[in-house]
Design goal:
CATH superfamily: Protein of unknown function DUF192
CATH architecture: Sandwich
CATH topology: Jelly Rolls
Number of helices: 2
Order of helices and strands: EEHEEEEEEHE
Distance between the termini: 32 Å
Helix content: under 10%
Radius of gyration: 14 Å
Structural class: mainly beta
Number of strands: 9
Strand order of the largest sheet: 6-5-8-3-2-1-9
CATH class: Mainly Beta
Strand content: 35-45%
């Protein structure tokens, strides 16, 4: 899961050189830091103490997986959306700061988006909503 010996840079996303992607969900613009490598996915938002209102982290996997996330060394509460290969939200969950309890996707997921706590609920976004701007796989 998420483990790192990287130095803490509290209050910032680590590393600041992660690529960014602009996503749209139900008309809301999201500025997502992209965690695509195994190392970046493992680090996630550890040690990050704040996110801007429409800022989050998008975890991208090369193929759909059975995803399970925890909040080790993450000092803020987060909302998490598990997204399938077609960009459709499978489930949205709330995660508590520092919790080691696993939060699982409701099915195979290729993308996972972490946002500030209650971000999805405050906008009425739930299962079935479709994310725009994801790097979807090319259909053969």
């Amino acid at each position: 899961m998420r483990q790192s010996s990287a130095p803490s840079r509290a209050g910032t996303l680590r590393p600041m050189n992660l690529p960014r992607l602009v996503l749209t969900l139900e008309g809301h613009r999201i500025d997502a830091h992209v965690a695509r490598s195994e190392e970046d996915r493992a680090q996630g938002l550890m040690e990050c103490t704040s996110l801007a209102e429409h800022e989050g982290m998008l975890f991208i996997h090369d193929a759909p997986i059975e995803a399970c996330f925890w909040m080790k060394n993450t000092p803020l509460d987060l909302s998490i959306a598990f997204i399938d290969d077609d960009g459709q939200i499978l489930n949205v969950e709330e995660m508590s700061a520092g919790s080691l309890d696993g939060t699982r996707a409701a099915g195979l997921t290729r993308f996972v988006l972490e946002m500030n706590s209650s971000w999805f609920a405050e906008r009425g976004i739930s299962r079935g909503a479709r994310m725009e701007g994801l790097p979807l796989p090319v259909q053969a």
